[in-house]
Amino acid sequence: MTGPRHTTVGIIGGGPAGLLLARLLHRAGIDCTVLESRDRAYVERRQRAGILEQGTVDVLRACGAGERLDREGLVHDGIELRYDGRAHRLDFPALTGGRRVTVYAQTEVVKDLIALQLASGPPLLFGAQALTVTGAASGSPRIRYLHEGREHTLTCDYVVGCDGFHGVARNAVPADERRTYERSYPYSWLGVLAEVPPSSDELIYTHSARGFALFSMRTPTVSRLYLQVPNGTAPADWPDDRIWDELETRSALDTPGGASGKLERGPITAKSVLPMRSSVTEPMRYGRLLLAGDAAHIVPPTGAKGLNLAVADVTVLARALTHLHHTGSTDLLDAYSATCLRRVWRAEHFSSFMTTTLHADPDQSPFETRLQLSQLDRIATSPHAAAELAENYTGVPLV
Ligand code: RFL
Ligand code: PHB
Prior knowledge:
Elements: E1 6-12, H1 16-27, E2 32-35, H2 40-45, E3 51-53, H3 54-62, H4 67-72, E4 74-76, E5 78-83, E6 86-91, H5 92-96, E7 101-103, H6 106-120, E8 124-125, E9 128-134, E10 142-147, E11 150-161, E12 179-194, E13 203-206, E14 213-219, E15 222-229, H7 240-251, E16 268-282, E17 285-286, E18 289-291, E19 297-298, H8 306-327, H9 331-358, H10 366-381, H11 383-394
Parallel strand pairs: 1-2, 1-11, 2-8, 5-13, 11-18
Antiparallel strand pairs: 3-7, 4-7, 5-6, 9-10, 10-11, 12-15, 12-16, 13-14, 14-15, 16-19, 17-18
Bound molecules: 8-demethyl-8-dimethylamino-flavin-adenine-dinucleotide and P-hydroxybenzoic acid (PHB).
């Protein structure tokens, strides 16, 4: 397939942000083209997030991508926190006035959006690698990209960088026009997929002296499990038995009558290590180039916010471009960066809070461990503290 030479909105990246933006623009009657450097199978198989906020589910439904999500998504009313030999359940609807989250893997969101786009949507080119974005400060930005061994140029009215943390769009903003705020963490996650039913109906976030563990799921028969590991860990350092032993040890409640920590084991089908980082680049707009999703900001996954932030950004952006299309006014587009950054910084704070409260920093003093436990105890005993966590986890309103 050859791509067009001109498009109203040129979208770099066919992850959740780029695909959803294309869908929203298409439904608003705005022409766009998506360039994705990888092939379809790779994009559909990339294991990442799993938790959708209510607002994310609503947007996917409203754009026609909710059918399988409604059938197969697992609605969750809470999470469990385990710490210091105790287990505490947070009841989200009770704490937030009815809000919930849905477990539906990012792989499935991406598959649904790709199927819709290939069936009836605007052009989506796989194997199309953007090389540069130029002219963002002028009226006619252009993307130079490589496709099927040849270089092409796509001229656009607007370019949106949805090309993730390692993409090219962010670097098309001159260095003196952007500022990046960053934090890295002294630990990573080992994430595995296992063909075994989840050990509990709910996600379990575990604080332990040996490090954090998270018990999540993909379907009623597939578990998604994470262990805190030192930076620089190779997946090969963790044979399957070692993973199960460690998950059991970290989740055990050593109290009379407490959960034994015995887990049903099953085949592990995927294993990867992911570093933990927070980063925000401001502003999210330079002239006619806009950044959305991981291209502008990333969070450590402890708060389950990365995918949800990407969806929020493109929802705000699609509204702004639709408003421009109908009225000729750039008001909403001018407000895009500031509107998104308020939510982004809330999610950055929450993700950082969850991460530093639940993980064992290798340099942590016993004093700091007691502070973590005190904070977890506060969440377990104060409805206000619990509501603060629940509101952030289920997602603050879109704007
Ligand atoms: P994505 O999903 O990274 O998509 C960007 C797309 O752009 C393409 N691309 C290019 N295309 C054309 N030309 C170029 N020059 C290009 N450069 C890149 C890429 O191939 C890709 O398809 O960003 P998007 O759409 O903003 O979506 C964001 C989410 O993917 C992300 O926030 C979350 O998945 C974060 N995240 C996780 N979040 C969670 O809540 N829970 C998790 O368990 C979780 N695991 C993860 C993650 C992110 C990871 N990354 C980015 C390293 C695990 C990993 C490994
Ligand atoms: C996941 O299921 O992949 C998941 C769930 C919750 C998180 C992070 C990842 O906080």
